């Protein structure tokens, strides 16, 4: 019989055991060892969770046994007993995965209460009101979280009782009102579940642990995991902790605080609390809490102690801490600490400040900022002119910065549906609920009526870099009618509003948004990233504008210039079409001659924008039919312009049609059929380089890239065309020019025969979009339609077109790099598929020893940081 330890007392763990105990469990253990006041408890490990799933969603006997053993121990140290009517132990049951997933999984508080224990609790505390308030909360949570009942049933009962006794707030209810609430809650439970509310605390406990394990796989947790690259196999731990009560009267309270401002990064205590309340009141945003600084007036001793411990925790963890605390009758307890989620601005400021304060070094600072978050820095602000006449209709709390403008929708489903249609959407909710996550993903911004800066919407929005305003009590939402009212004005579903997540202002009109300015901390931090990283970062750019933007973001060159985008230009498309319908080589050459000066001009302006940096230009790639119209009307018009008959043009278009164009007549295959195309492009690339070198004094060495080869002979064929024309042009010009010819590796056969390919290629660039397509046999265009089924069935957790499949496609890349360098020691290798801007794929490229990654301009900063992180985690020099 295996003898695995699944349950750990808090004093048996430490912060390094995150994988086993989850973040929360490991930190509770660490705080316990540091002597910080933490209520006693134990953690059921993540391995117990994986076992639970392996065993078919049951908690096995040996795990139950270990839980009971730890419970005995807890009863001994607290001197209390679960279910005792003399000195009852009450516990909380909370999830805690390796990575924090705020609000995504379940929590149960006040467990251990039943009809008898509640009476004892009332007597012991001399506070019946508190006892019954705790019991009604427990029944509500257990029924909702563990048994899956609709929580609105309980909210309705509470509202009914409040109304019948004229109570405005929950805190206005008396002990006997709360007894009535409990009675009605239990009746509701019995009616729906067809049994009494469970009175045996051990049953309550095991059922609750079961529910937390189960919640690891609830839909919102799955979505959150996919967004944050958290593998499903990690599982969650469960923390069972003896309860301390923030709802025991005016010297009790509970709150959440950050050691630095999570929106701006400012070094100031930032947080909120509620007197006489339990934790979920703060985070669920049901009551709007008070600023932490008020605690100094309410409970000065606690405040002092709180500040001391918070400071100690920050220094211990060397990072901004997000802490949950409870004060029970004047005594302070810490229930949780973790590295706090923060906006991108705050993350940069905190990382730079921590280095300047001497708490961490630059390498450690790299790991304090999530590369994906940098995206949000590049997000829009309001156009100043647009703002001048804008009408402020309300103000809420500025929970997550940025500006957003869109049409209002009142639930996640509608927001998602309209967002996916390409509408700009603002999600408006009465209060925040983690189920809204799907709507938040598609929304430009989120607005909620209730809730504080630490409510779920605020935390999640900040993590996503989504503009968010919460606690906006000025507006009244009618979710059934899908409207909101503010100052007598009604806004319907589909009406425009704008949000400023930095000020909390809500505007009643559509306001234009503009690109952001980047702060000083960004510059400092990114310069450290550049010092550290070994991988170069280039950009995929086809226009001088994109190239210039990418340079601003730190690109070191162009890794992919897709020339077809130039062909689509209004001025050129006609010549391109002439080339396609040409009946013979001569006609085709004539059309190409018209394109030559335009292409030369294109390349020259890109070289100029890149100011001498490396530029890789790829020859024409897509199938030709993409340049021709499909509608009869358009075909007729074009036929007239081209001076040919409708019939013959239609016939040409029909003949170019392919069943699977992605696998069809594209890439180098076009140049093999029509060498004139490669010749024209080669000439334009070389002539432009000579011209710009002369005019600007640069030393451009054009890199000419041949796409979609699968056999070295294809490469050789196209290369010979380029070499011939390039050498002619160079000779005629009378000046020196070096150039390189390389290839994309995007057909598996090219990867498999990379040693042969490298004989002809001076560089490789992995086209991981096509390489993924062809390795999986998934069409790039169609896979999106069915990949969702793969996620649902847990066959894949991530889209292989976004996050590189390291096991399969990655293996091909590894092989190709090795084989290629066997033939050509100094072979330069990079990536230019979409994966070039995905942090985990960048890390893979670093480990593989590639020279560079290339990605779209806005992802350049993401890739720079990801490359620095990769070097910190796996230094190349020590390999
Ligand atoms: C690729 O296939 O990864 C690539 C960069 O080329 P394209 O996306 O243009 O096919
Ligand atoms: Mg490709």
From TrEMBL:
UniProt lineage: Bacteria, Bacillati, Bacillota, Clostridia, Eubacteriales
Gene name, Swiss-Prot/TrEMBL: ppdK
Domain named Pyruvate phosphate dikinase AMP/ATP-binding: residues: 19-57, 59-294, 304-353
Keyword set includes RNA-binding: no
InterPro entries named among the record's database cross-references: ATP_grasp_subdomain_1, PEP-util_enz_mobile_dom, PEP_util_AS, PEP_util_C, PEP_util_CS, Phosphohistidine_dom_sf, PPDK_AMP/ATP-bd, Pyruvate_phosphate_dikinase
Catalyses which reaction(s): pyruvate + phosphate + ATP = phosphoenolpyruvate + AMP + diphosphate + H(+)
PROSITE patterns (UniProt xref): PEP_ENZYMES_2, PEP_ENZYMES_PHOS_SITE
EC code(s) of this entry: 2.7.9.1
Keywords: ATP-binding, Kinase, Magnesium, Metal-binding, Nucleotide-binding, Pyruvate, Transferase
Cofactor(s) the protein requires to work: Mg(2+)
Family according to the record: Belongs to the PEP-utilizing enzyme family.
A Pfam family that the UniProt record links to this protein: PEP-utilizers_C
Ranges where the PEP-utilising enzyme mobile domain occurs: 423-504
PEP-utilising enzyme C-terminal domain mapped to chain residues: 522-871
Protein name listed in UniProt: Pyruvate, phosphate dikinase
């Amino acid at each position: 019989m295996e003898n695995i330890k699944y349950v750990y007392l808090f004093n048996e763990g430490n912060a390094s055991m995150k994988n086993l105990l989850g973040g929360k469990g490991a930190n509770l253990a660490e705080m316990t060892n540091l002597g910080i006041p933490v209520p006693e408890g134990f953690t059921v490990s993540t391995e117990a969770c994986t076992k639970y799933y392996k065993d078919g969603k049951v908690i096995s006997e040996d795990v139950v046994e270990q839980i009971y053993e730890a419970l005995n121990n807890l009863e001994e140290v607290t001197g209390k007993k679960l279910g005792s009517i003399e000195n009852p132990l009450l516990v909380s049951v909370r999830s805690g995965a390796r990575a924090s997933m705020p609000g995504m999984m379940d929590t149960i508080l006040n467990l251990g209460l039943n009809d008898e224990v509640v009476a004892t609790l009332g007597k012991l505390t001399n506070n019946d009101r508190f006892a019954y308030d705790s019991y009604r909360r427990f029944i509500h949570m257990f029924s909702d979280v563990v048994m899956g009942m609709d929580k609105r049933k309980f909210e309705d009962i509470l509202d009914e009782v409040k109304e019948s006794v004229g109570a405005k707030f929950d805190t206005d209810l008396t002990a006997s009102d709360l007894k009535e609430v409990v009675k009605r809650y239990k009746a509701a439970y019995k009616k729906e579940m067809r049994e009494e509310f469970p009175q045996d605390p051990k049953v309550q406990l095991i059922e609750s642990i079961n529910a937390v394990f189960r919640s690891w796989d609830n839909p919102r947790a799955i979505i959150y995991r996919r967004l944050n690259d958290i593998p499903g196999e990690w599982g969650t731990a469960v923390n069972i902790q003896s309860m301390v009560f923030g709802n025991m009267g005016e010297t009790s309270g509970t709150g959440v605080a950050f050691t630095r401002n999570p929106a701006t990064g400012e070094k100031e205590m930032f947080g909120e609390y509620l007197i006489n309340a339990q934790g979920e009141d703060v985070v669920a945003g049901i009551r709007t809490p008070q600023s932490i600084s008020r605690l100094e007036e309410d409970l000065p001793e606690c405040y002092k102690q709180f500040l001391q411990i918070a400071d100690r925790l920050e220094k211990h963890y060397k990072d901004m801490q997000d802490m949950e605390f409870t004060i029970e009758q004047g005594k302070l307890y810490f229930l949780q600490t973790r590295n706090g989620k923060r906006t991108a601005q705050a993350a940069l400021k905190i990382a730079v400040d921590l280095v300047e304060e001497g708490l961490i070094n630059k390498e450690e600072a790299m790991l304090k900022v999530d590369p994906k978050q940098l995206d949000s820095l590049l997000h829009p602000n309001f156009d100043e002119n647009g703002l001048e006449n804008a009408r402020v209709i309300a103000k809420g709390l500025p929970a997550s910065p940025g500006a957003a403008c869109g049409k209002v929708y009142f639930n996640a489903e509608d927001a998602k549906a309209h967002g996916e249609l390409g509408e700009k959407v603002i999600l408006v909710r009465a209060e925040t609920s983690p189920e809204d996550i799907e709507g938040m993903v598609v929304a430009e911004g989120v607005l909620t009526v209730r809730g504080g800066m630490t409510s779920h919407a605020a935390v999640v929005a900040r993590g996503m870099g989504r503009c968010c305003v919460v606690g906006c009590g000025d507006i009244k939402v009618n979710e059934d009618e899908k409207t909101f009212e503010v100052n007598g004005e009604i806004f319907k579903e589909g009406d425009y509003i704008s949000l400023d997540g930095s000020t909390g202002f809500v505007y009643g009109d559509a306001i234009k948004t503009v690109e952001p300015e980047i702060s000083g901390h960004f510059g400092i931090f990114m310069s450290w990233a550049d010092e550290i990283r070994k991988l170069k970062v280039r950009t995929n750019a086809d226009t001088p504008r994109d190239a210039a933007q990418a340079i601003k973001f730190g690109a070191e060159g162009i890794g992919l210039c897709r020339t077809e985008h130039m062909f689509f230009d209004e001025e050129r498309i006609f010549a391109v079409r002439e080339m396609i319908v040409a009946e013979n080589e001569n006609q085709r050459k004539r059309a190409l001659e018209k394109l030559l000066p335009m292409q030369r001009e294109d390349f020259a302006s890109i070289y100029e924008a890149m100011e001498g940096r490396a530029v890789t230009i790829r020859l024409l790639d897509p199938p030709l039919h993409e340049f021709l119209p499909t509608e009869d009307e358009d075909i007729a018009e074009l036929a007239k312009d081209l001076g040919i008959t409708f019939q013959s043009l239609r016939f040409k278009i029909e003949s170019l049609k392919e069943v699977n164009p992605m696998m069809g007549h594209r890439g180098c295959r076009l140049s093999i059929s029509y060498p004139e195309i490669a010749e024209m492009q080669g000439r334009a690339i070389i002539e432009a380089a000579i011209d710009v070198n002369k005019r600007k004094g640069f030393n451009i060495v054009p890199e000419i890239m041949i796409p979609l080869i699968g056999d070295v002979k294809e490469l050789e064929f196209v290369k010979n065309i380029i070499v011939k024309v390039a050498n002619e042009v160079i000779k005629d010009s009378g000046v020196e020019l070096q150039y390189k010819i390389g290839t994309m590796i995007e057909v598996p056969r090219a990867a498999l025969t990379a040693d042969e390919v490298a004989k002809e290629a001076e560089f490789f660039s992995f086209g991981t979009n096509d390489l993924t397509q062809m390795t999986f046999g998934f069409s790039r265009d169609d896979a999106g339609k069915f990949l969702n089924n793969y996620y649902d069935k847990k066959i894949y957790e991530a889209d292989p077109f976004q996050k590189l499949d390291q096991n399969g496609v990655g293996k091909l890349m590894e092989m190709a790099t090795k084989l290629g360098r066997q033939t050509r020691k100094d072979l330069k290798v990079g990536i230019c598929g979409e994966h070039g801007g995905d942090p985990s794929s960048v890390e893979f490229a670093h480990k593989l020893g590639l020279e560079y990654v290339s990605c779209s301009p806005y992802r350049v900063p993401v890739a720079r940081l990801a490359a620095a992180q990769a070097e910190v985690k796996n230094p190349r020099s020590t390999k």
